[in-house]
């Protein structure tokens, strides 16, 4: 699994395929959890004008941070030496390093509009990561939706119509 980093290349290929089928397509990338990380990692790439907006729901800042956090929270283990060994193995097997797999860095260079969604009771991807990601978005429009009391990936269920009304309102500003 590419944790969103290698997957961003798949998304770019899907975008090309969509545009081959319909050159007038207007594309919105929306992902939850790992999908959100993939969406954010794609956002920093050179995407065609047909890609209009990004929506991420409970995505993490980068692979290193999420794995280090889980090591500590779930297993009480330190980053060193586990993260360093795992980083080395992933580089050998998958061809990338945890340190380069960063939604935070990609969001920082993304120029297209992005909506950030997160639940305050998320015990997998820390709610604090929302502020880091939102703050990193230096270019283009951005909006934040906070779901009070929602756990990981639960914002759409907890908020119901408010979730989808907010998403469609944001997306509607950029789709003809």
Describe it.
With 176 residues, the protein is α/β, with parallel strands linked by helices. The protein has eight helices and four strands; from the N terminus they run H-E-H-E-H-H-H-E-H-E-H-H. It has helices at 7-21, 34-43, 63-75, 82-94, 103-109, 128-136, 155-159, 161-172, and strands spanning 27-32, 51-57, 114-119, 142-147. It has a four-stranded parallel β-sheet, with helices on both faces. Helix 1 crosses helix 2 (34-43) and helix 5 (103-109) packs parallel to helix 6. It is globular, with a radius of gyration of 16 Å. The model has no long low-confidence stretch (mean pLDDT 97).
| Beta-strand content estimate | 5-15%
Strand numbers in spatial order across the main sheet: 1-2-3-4
> What does the largest sheet look like?
4 strands, parallel
Number of strands: 4
Uncertain segments of ≥5 residues (pLDDT<50)? none
Our Rg estimate from Cα atoms comes to 16 Å
What is the percent of helical residues? Answer: 40-55%
Number of discrete helical segments: 8
Structural class: alpha/beta
Q: Termini distance?
A: 35 Å
Helix and strand pattern: HEHEHHHEHEHH
Overall average pLDDT: 97
User: What form results from the Cα inertia axes?
Assistant: globular
